[in-house]
Specification:
This protein is an alpha/beta fold. It has ten helices and ten strands. The mean pLDDT is 91.
Length: 233
Amino acid sequence: MTVLELDNVNAFYGESHVLHGVSFAVARGEVVCLLGRNGAGKTTTLLTIMGYLRPGPGRISYGGRDLAGMPPYAVARLGFGFVPQERGIFPSLTVRENLTVAARRGAGGRWTLAEIHRLFPRLQEREANLGFQLSGGEQQMLSIARALMLNPTLLLLDEPSEGLAPMIVDEIIAILRHLRQEGLAILLVEQNMHTALDLADRHHVLSKGEICFVGSSAELEGNEDVKKLYLAV
């Protein structure tokens, strides 16, 4: 079942035309990855989906519902969980407070504090610590966990592996795989191709705001031209 669909989406920063006819879809239980160099339009795509930028022209639909003109808070209420690149946790709140302030019952209320603690035992150990006292990996886990407390049906992640130790990246990949197995749709933005290949079902490579390649992990891994031209591998 298709959860999210973009059809010929264009986006602008003022007069600057950033996205050019971007089209793709994300299905339930699928991990779709947007890859590309800095400035390719990956984060802009997420911000446009979330309503921070208005697509024009183009259509973004969620479960068949047109998102045009919706502000970010209204988009989030439909069932989106957004994990931004800067993580966006509250540094002066405890781990527990960061989680409970975002809690919302939805989709059957699957994600509770107890379920979060089962998936992220480290956050339970650190629940009395303030956000700024966490390591980078713990902050990333908290950001993902807080998004889950919204009980989303679609999770959007902007470079969750950035700046993290390989052991922590492996732990986050394992968590995201578990979420996919539970049927959660995931749209992932990554620059690290190896992380993307480990996790995603399908890849869309962006260059200058346009999709220049679509394929499976095996197809991307075997395409030396795409890797060399657009991913600097």
